[in-house]
Amino acid sequence: MTVNQYFPAVSNVPAAETVPAPTLADAGPPSSRLYEPTLTIMHPDWVNKAVFSSDGSLLATACHDGSVRLWNATTSVMVRRFKAPDQFSVDDVVFSPDNSVIAAATSRYKPFAASLMVWKVKTGELVHETEYGGYIQSLEFLPMTGDLVSAEANGKLKVWNTDRWTFTEPDVMTDEWIEQMVLSPDGKFLAFRVRGRTVPICELRGGFHIVRRLRSDEEENRARCIAFCADGRLAVAWNRKIGLSNVTDNLPQVLLDDPGDILSLASCADPELLVCGTIGGNVVPVDLRSGPLFDDLLPLHDRRVLSVAFSPDGRRIVSSSDDCSVRLYSLQRGIRSS
User: Each residue of 2-41: pLDDT tens digit?
Assistant: First the structure.
């Protein structure tokens, strides 16, 4: 489905402010590098999340100013803008598997308030809004059922039926402080980054139940971010290492050097390739066979890289930052599919 099929009535929508991505100093010929910068899109406030639609035609950005912006991922033209209530931030955003709706986690610090908001992508209609008692840390759609899972900081999970917009609450993470939730490529497992030294992995078949907890071998070491690889392994960025684990066995983690201060992590169709965003503003590709590819260091954001993501075909990468920018990069080399 093309962008025009999503938005048949949309015309003359102004492009957002864009600036050229910075050039790479001493980078050598473009074909010698893994990625090359193509575009920088500026926002009015920091950007908590940037994510592609499942067909790669749209890009959604979640901004601290309380807006979700939809962009043509090829032309960078903004095609729609969704708005949360005044003084709210948009903390997470996710497309449904068929790209028909987009869900956002919103919050306000003082006085505290949080809500789940869901809009139709094609028309912009708000189809659901519910207030929450705690911060919504992550959202994931389950491709096999179409249900939407929300994870709150207080450990509560809600599984929403997106036809009736009713929910159930699995009693599986009630004693945890959830900071991040990610879904496996086959849709069968959820992994959680929680405060502490463990990463619980939950199997969805037959109901929610924890099948494994990954642990760090070092005292006072905590997970900074997590991501599933294309082959189903879970990557965990600990304080000083990146750990790789199969979900269901009890084999020790394979440890790789950490490129430093990882804050965000993403995988692509190549099971041996990750990309990391750092506190210092770097975007660093990681070859899981050899470690960080420092020779392919991508241009700096001016501040923290809050999110990184690959396009579904693995040919592009997007990063977002609290320097109010979203940057897109194109893949210069072929990738190996799992």
Answer: 444 444 333 333 334 443 433 323 333 334 456 677 889 9
The residue behind tokens 């749209």 is 58
The DSSP element (H or E) to which 161 belongs, if any, is strand 157-161
Angle, alpha carbons 303-307-308 (nearest 5°): 110
67 and 82 Cβ atoms separated by less than 8 Å: yes
Residue 174 and residue 242: Cα distance in Å, rounded? Answer: 27
**Tokens describing residue 238:** 């600990």
Measured distance CA(151)–CA(154) in Å, rounded: 8
Question: What is the C-alpha separation between 48 and 180, in angstroms, rounded?
Answer: 13
CA geometry: angle 18, 20, 24, nearest 5 deg = 150
Report which of 176, 225, 178, 234 is spatially closest to residue 203, judged by C-alpha positions: 234
Assess contact for 84 and 126: CB atoms under 8 A.
Answer: no
- Taking residues 238-257, what's their average pLDDT? 78
Q: Summarize pLDDT for 66-91 with one digit per residue, the tens.
A: 999 999 998 889 999 999 999 999 99
CA 330, CA 315: separation in Å to the nearest integer? 6
- Strand ranges of the sheet holding 148-152, from the earlier edge strand across to the other edge: 136-141, 148-152, 157-161, 166-168
DSSP state for residue 280 in the 8-state scheme: T
Question: Which whole number is the average pLDDT over 227-246?
Answer: 88
